[in-house]
Amino acid sequence: xxxxxxxxxxxxxxxxxxxAKRDNPDVDxxxxxxxxxxxxxxxxxxxxxxxxxxxxxxxVSVTPxxxxxxxxxxxxxxxxxxxxxxxxxxxxxxxxxxxxxxxxDHLLVATGAEAVLPPIVGLEREGVYTLGSMSEGKDxxxxxxxxxxxxxxxxxxxxxxxxxxxxxxxxxxxxxxxYIGVEMAEALAANGFEVHLFQRGDRILKQFSEETxxxxxxxxxxQNVEVYLGAAVEELAGGDRVEAVVTDDLRVPVExxxxxxxxxxxxxxxxxxGIEVGETGAIATDAYRETNVPDVYAAGDCAEAEHVVTGEPxxxxxxxxxxxxGRAIGQTVAGTPTKGGGIAGTAAVKAFExxxxxxxxxxxxxxxxxxxxxxxxxxxxxxxxxxxxxxGTVQVTLTVDRPTGRVLGGSLASEFGExxxxxxxxxxxxxxxxxxxxxxxxxxxxxAPPFNTTWDPVLTAAKVVEGKR
Length: 469
Ligand code: FAD
Description:
By secondary structure, this protein is of the alpha/beta class. The chain folds into 3 domains: 3-35 and 59-113 and 264-334, FAD/NAD(P)-binding domain; 128-259, 3-Layer(bba) Sandwich (FAD/NAD(P)-binding domain); 353-468, FAD/NAD(P)-binding domain (3-Layer(bba) Sandwich), CATH 3.50.50. Helix content is 28%, strand content 26%. The chain contains 12 helices and 25 strands. The chain has helices spanning 11-23, 45-50, 64-70, 134-154, 179-190, 210-222, 268-272, 319-333, 364-369, 420-433, 437-441, 457-468; strands at residues 3-7, 28-33, 74-77, 80-85, 90-95, 98-103, 106-109, 113-115, 128-129, 169-175, 193-198, 226-228, 235-238, 242-246, 251-253, 256-259, 263-265, 296-298, 305-306, 313-314, 347-351, 354-360, 374-382, 393-401, 407-415. It has a 5-stranded parallel beta sheet with strand order 3-2-1-7-18, covered by helices on one side. It has a 5-stranded parallel beta sheet with strand order 9-16-10-11-12. Helix 1 (11-23) links the parallel strand 1 and strand 2 (28-33). The chain is globular. Flavin-adenine dinucleotide is lined by residues 7-13, 32-35, 42-43, 45-46, 80-81, 110-113, 131-132, 180, 266, 269, 300-301, 317-320, 322.
């Protein structure tokens, strides 16, 4: 009988806990979660705020009771682990009832990430929100509901007609043009808010290709989202409540601001225990996601892992990595040593009536750092056979290593439903397996008129890049 202790009860933690118990019921599994929610899908919060998902409970995949009763996991919510003592293999957790200690044979640190708040004056004002947790999601949805009903009372003639039709509330500001900023622009605009999005750099969605960013930017403009590029927000001005977003040359009146400027791994607990933090700032792990301390693992948004293209440690805090690495650790702890696999940095985003995806390495400087000589090309092609009704355009950017032709990364954009995201999966295979663009151009992809042209846009992109190499 051994004891597996997990710190953090979301994607990484509960995947590991469930897998360990399922594979080896003799393992005692104890999970400490400082909050009340476990196994929740923060990824669904923008759609909950938008109003497409009615209840926060719908975002929970397994309830605490199910973990306890059906999976036989000793889940202790409301317990924050405040100390790890690797020498004695003990953790200390604090709850409303005081402190408890718990011995472990195996330990997983799955503490997630926390919002990075830039040095902006006025972040403490009422009406300034972040969106990293279920309770923050609840607060934002309550704000949206309040603002809408107040405005509908003031404008009874417009009433529910404003819903999804025309701007009637706001204005509101979003600081940060990453995927959460973009998803929230859609969520707020769909509720009738006039949305102003401030991005410090020269493009939104900077992890995607420049062409993808440009396409989504144009689309945000079409949807009446005012995007300010090169706009470093200095102050959220106002009295008790926020009243304006201020940059060096702008002062935009707002009634609410969402700050979505990225996350950093939550590593203090691990670092204090002598667990090594890597050069990305996240917890360093080997292929089994074990840290430098024997039998102590780390996974999810608090940990780094090797990138499938560069072979170097990378930090890409996304949900599948957390689930995948957590599951592998659970299997290891249950008795079958299992590698969780590297990360390709694959991500997807929906922006109003468009979708986009990216994978691999698109950044020339990063590619050069690890010895590649990158070249990039972008094509646009029809998403379905020309004679088939409907359809749109898929834009594909491919980055390859010029001398060898190895596919390093890809980025795609299309109208929503026209397949940019699903097409990216072929590129994930290519970057993960290290194949060349010529080999990619010979992939035997599925074809039928309602789904693509005979030569899928991915194949067309590969042929074009191969021709230019
Ligand atoms: P977390 O989900 O952060 O969970 C960590 C848990 O540890 C928390 O519950 C925390 O309370 C607990 N904890 C921390 N410290 C302690 C302690 N000392 N003691 C006890 N408990 C502790 N990813 C995607 O791939 N696709 C998406 O579309 C997507 N959309 C997102 C949208 C939003 C709004 C947000 C916020 C995130 C989104 N993500 C998305 C990211 C995804 O949610 C995370 O990658 C995933 O939740 C990481 O899981 P985790 O278990 O590593 O960490």
